Each structure stands twice: as structure tokens, then as C-alpha cells.
Amino acid sequence: MDMQRLHEILSTVWVVWFVLLFTGILAWVLRPGSREAASQHATIPLRDSQP
């Protein structure tokens, strides 16, 4: 196996891995129970800090 063939295989594996990772993150964020947590996280910068 030469370096060119190895590069082609690893490039394909990387793209497939990235698509699976992106799809998993998207499914995690858009799951039905995440709305409440997302709204709580969205207000973090607006909360008063406690000294």
C-alpha cells in the first residue's frame, strides 16, 4: 500500500467520521427534552454574578 492510497482511505474515513459526529451532535441538540436545558444555558451570560 503506497502513501497515495493510504491518504485516499484516511480522507474518506475522516469525512464519514465527521458526518456521523455532526449528525450525532445535531440529534443530541434537537432531542425533545433539551429545550429546557437550552433555555437555561442561554441565560447564563445575563445572570448577576455573586461576589
Could you provide a short overview of the structure?
With 51 residues, the protein is mostly helical. The protein is built from two helices and no strands.
Question: How would you characterize this protein structure?
Answer:
With 51 residues, the chain is mainly α. 69% of the residues lie in helices and 0% in strands. It is built from 2 helices and no strands. The longest helix is centred in the N-terminal third of the chain and has 27 residues, at 3-29.
Q: Note the overall shape.
A: elongated
Helix and strand string, N-terminal first?
A: HH
Structural class by helix and strand composition? mainly alpha
* Strand runs, count: 0
Total count of helical runs of at least 4 residues? 2
The low-pLDDT segments are: none
Q: Tell me about the largest β-sheet.
A: none
Q: Kindly report the average pLDDT value.
A: 89
What is the alpha-carbon Rg in Å?
20 Å
Strand content: under 5%
Distance between the termini: 62 Å
> Helix share of residues?
55-70%
Write the layout of secondary structure elements.
Layout: H1 3-29, H2 35-42
Structure characteristics:
single chain; 51 residues; mainly alpha
